Amino acid sequence: MISVIMPVYLGKYPLAAKNREQKLIRAINSVINQTYKDWELIIVCDGCADAYNICKPFVNGKIKLFKIAKQPMWSGTPRNVGITKSKGGWITYLDSDDFFGENHLMILSKQLGDKDWYFFDDIKFNNDWYISHCFLEKSHCGTSNIIHKKIEYWENESKYSYDDWYFIRKLMEHNYQKITAPEYYVAHIPNEYDR
Asked: Residue 2's closest CA among 120, 87, 99?
């Protein structure tokens, strides 16, 4: 099983995406519509009643919803709660203003092997969709670009913090590899191309 962790906060903050309620629904539906069916979606609402109310109708055996107290901006707590609540052997992430192409989890699942974690490119919008390359050597990789095994000691040793790159640097102490996964769509770029 692949556990998809989705932290959600719909309050105001600098450079927030537009139309976040609609994007949240799109993100949830993009998981529901996966061709790969052995998944669970863990949604963690960060003190936001609006987000909780939008997500509640989707809850079923495969979609779980948790509400936590409002955290400081960019806190790692929502992702850590999601990791703790997950049941899958593999964990990946989806930002609530992004979405998966229908084959994203299938593409990932076919490439998983004996490594502890994998990273991959994503697709961004800037006048048109284009592949945005993830380079560890340039510190250019985010939580949305990874899938990792659920290993208990990582929860103590490598907790997600406010900084994607801190988390990934900790993961880099373990076995990893780059794989092909061209169906993670970064739909929020804080400029006129916000899709």
From this structure: 87
